[in-house]
Amino acid sequence: MNDAHEMDSVADRRKFIGFVILLLMCAGVVRFLLAEEYTGFISDQGLFVQWMESVREYGLGGAFAANGNINYPPLFLWVMGLYGDLLHALGISTYAGAISFKFLLILIDLAAVVLAVWLTAGISNYNWRSFILVLFALNPALMTDSAVWGQVDMLHSMLMLLAMMWLSNRPFMSGVIFALALLTKFQAITVLPVIGIWLLIVLVKERNFRPLLMWTIGFITPWMAALSYFGAAGSLGIMISQAYTDAVGFYISVTMNAMNIWFYIIGIAPGTNDTEILAAGVTMRNFGFGLLFISVIGICLYVYRSREESTAVLLKASAALCLAFFMLPTEIHERYSIPALVFTVFVLLKDKRWVLPAGLLTLTVMMNLIIVLDNNVTAGTGVWIAIVNVFVLIWMHRLLWMGAGSGIAESLPSLPALTNEAGEL
């Protein structure tokens, strides 16, 4: 009997390995076809190619001083520099909108799929694991962002995800990876409140200082290396200002094509200056930050009160916080929704009830990107996306409180059951 069971397990594993290989091939082919068919957002890609050449010519340490248009942190520039050196050695020229540049983004996507296979290894149900991998690997929104648009939001999103998944059991590596996420894009700081409250809870409730200590050491290590490198190159101040401080508040519209609450939902046109007074002397910018602050407090309370296991708590809180960051403040770009979508897909590792948010976000993120690429951003084409996004944000917060074990959760109306009562796999 045991022999037969073992044979079945071996056969299942072989089938799954075959499925993964086929999925990787499909993910690569579809991305190549999309990249070949659509040039994407030439402005972004043109800057990336320009930055790549600056890194090749002046080195990573001198690129920021030589090119004042660089406004990304150094990690992606370093990756592009390596890629540019490889293409140069092969005699291949890089052009915006062409496969020669987008191939790098496809490689990053495929590396993310391989990482997803590893991160889902704890799921014993091969069918459910396969569903999650397909939803991630062939997600039309994620493919639109990279293979079509030509952006690299997958890189910092996966680093953010890995930092949260390792926080409870590998705090040192979590700190290292989170530092790398910040060195890739400043948006990664979105999940810092979740990290902070979790480490604080462990410190206070369990009187265990080791996770905080190890995470801090891990976080400092890449930063010390980066600061030392740019300090020796004489470009530390320039790098910090261009990649971080000057990049904040550069755009003053209430929304930069992000279909959130500022996209006609509250009766304000997207191009409105966010420094204008909304009411009672409060600017729209400050009101947006206030809404985000309230959401952060609520999500931190969920982390504090939750009865769920650590990884589930961290993934759900991060998904909700990333979506709140996209939905509530002003000056948000359409692509800032990508981390929220990535986290939501991986919440499915722990809770099947998040299928609806994952599906709806896939739809709204994809349509938001397509409408911007088509230069067709109007109330008629986009307000429905903003409304659905509001619904998803509310739904997410409802799901959080269902797992918080508080009286608030029990007082809220019930949702349709997609799994068992606990929502576990």
Automatic annotation (TrEMBL):
The keyword Transmembrane helix applies. Keywords: Membrane, Transmembrane, Transmembrane helix. The chain crosses the membrane at residues 16-34, 75-96, 103-128, 148-167, 176-201, 213-236, 248-267, 287-304, 311-328, 354-373, 379-396. This is DUF2029 domain-containing protein.
